[in-house]
Amino acid sequence: MTGLSGKVVLLTGAGSGIGRATAIKLHGLGATLAITDVSQEGISQTLELCGGKHYAQTLDVSKQQDVENRVAEIVASLGRIDHVFNCAGINPTAFPLTDVSEEYYDKLMAVNLKGVFSVTKATMPHVTTSRGSYVNVSSILGVRAGAEYAIYCATKWGVIGFSKAMALELGPKGVRVNVVAPGYITTPTNAGVAKGTDDAIKEMERANSLGRMGTPEEIAAVVAFLMGDEAKYMNGSVVEVDGMMK
Ligand code: NAP
User: Fold this and answer.
1) Hey, what's the signal peptide range on this chain (predicted)?
2) What pTM was computed for the model?
């Protein structure tokens, strides 16, 4: 991956899982990071794992005014924003639609979809000035369906529609917008991992052509590729990183 050394990258949801692994990857490539997450403990740990010398503050992406304030603070502190990794999200819990509450619906929409909108809107002037890029996190459930995951599917299909429209709008300004769609990844809130049973993990492994779950580092590598110079003709792409689910 070339072209990321010295670039300023804002990451959301970087206090755990895929966001944290991506922060570590980008730190290794010489980027300057704005590490954000709703969890104070999460960002402190990620900051430490990234050498301790980056910007790191809490940010709840579902609160638009907080997003705008934080983005202004990041630009004041780091001078620019080149790339954004919209990773913050709530992984799904399986519910038959009849059991889905309005509260659950609103929460998933507010974080998984509106969060991507708010962060994109607030950062757009800066990323446009830098002619940088966005990588937004959808899911394999953003390109296919899963019974009992209707609301999560709606948010993650929404991320893809939003990203493709943004790619058309920002492409002429020299900004690329791409999507990574992970399959089952070994993070603390993955549905199978969260169940905490061997059976749940085995079920996920059996559902995969490679016979295993993916790692956060395997997603981070693709995110860094999408931001870097090697992907400079990729815009509006959705990269499925799922080991081919059956
Ligand atoms: P994770 O380990 O739970 O990390 C997600 C991080 O986002 C957590 O630190 C969480 O903080 C934070 N967060 C939650 N709500 C937030 C908010 N309102 N504002 C800012 N940060 C917030 O999960 P992950 O598996 O790495 O998930 C990262 C992204 O990948 C999500 O968008 C997820 O839907 C997507 N994804 C994951 C998988 C998978 O199998 N793991 C598959 C497909 C897609 P708290 O822990 O304090 O809530």
Assistant:
1) none
2) 0.98
